[in-house]
Backbone:
């Protein structure tokens, strides 16, 4: 039986296969990353427009290195720090 693989985005913004699922999700167009249970992302997914641009990261550091910023909804403290507040 083959092991399940997940498509993640690396710090170079290139996709790669991983046997471990992503810990953070992101949106390719807006370059925002957040928690997988983010209310804003789940609302967008429910509307159907977000799914095609959805990416996943192994960890937060990789998302940041890839040029993504924290979500203001599910990561408000990190977002404020990113904004310099």
Residues:
């Amino acid at each position: 039986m083959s092991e399940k693989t997940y498509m993640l985005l690396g710090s170079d913004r290139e996709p790669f296969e991983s046997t471990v699922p992503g810990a953070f999700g992101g949106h390719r167009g807006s370059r925002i990353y957040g928690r997988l249970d983010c209310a804003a992302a789940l609302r967008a997914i429910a509307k159907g427009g977000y799914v095609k641009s959805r990416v996943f990261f192994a960890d937060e550091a990789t998302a940041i290195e890839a040029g993504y910023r924290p979500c203001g909804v599910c990561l408000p403290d990190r977002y404020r720090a990113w904004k310099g507040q």
Summary: Strands lie at 6-9, 15-18, 24-27, 32-35, 54-57, 69-70. The radius of gyration is 13 Å.
